[in-house]
Write the structure tokens for this entry.
Amino acid sequence: MPARTWRPPLRDSAENGLKIVIVGGFGVGKTTMVRSVSDIRPLNTEETMTRAGEGIDDPSAVAGKTTTTIAFDFGRIGIDEQTVLYLFGAPGQERFWFLWDRLFSGTLGAVVLVDTRRLADSWYSIDRLEHHGTPFIVAHNDFGGPHHTHDQIREALDLSPDVPLIDCDARSRESSKDVLLTLVNHLHALATAHYAQNGAEEEIAR
């Protein structure tokens, strides 16, 4: 049996608890990211893929995948002494997309996990986040294969220049944590800019 990785216990309480969703296409690594980074044993709803999904799910681009998330994954990680992230990994198949709007409720930000071999699978994720007005970043999960520059990925996904894009390995705790820190910093920058703008407008109004 492999040795368990020790992780520091979370504080009993924290000043900031942030709900984060991890979205993306089928088999891009959402469950893997939640598992690798969570400070607690993650909750997952993975089930074995069966013949009932034939003709509905397309596993051709994810050879070797035998399980699939049918509801959501849940994990938790302490970023620092004041901030805890509650992570929700959304299911990737189209037949489970009806769950997404409920998962987005109360969400402060999102990670869109992408596989550059199947970038079209990410369009729905980005569309729904923009529809809800949810800030997000994009994380390119490295599956090997042809290298794509960030400019190429941005162009393919039609990303706004202000949306952060980062490379990652969802199997790595440190890499996945870097992704979450990038999102937290992005949310902080957006909040600071919003506060500065509203404060300036209030001063002008006076």
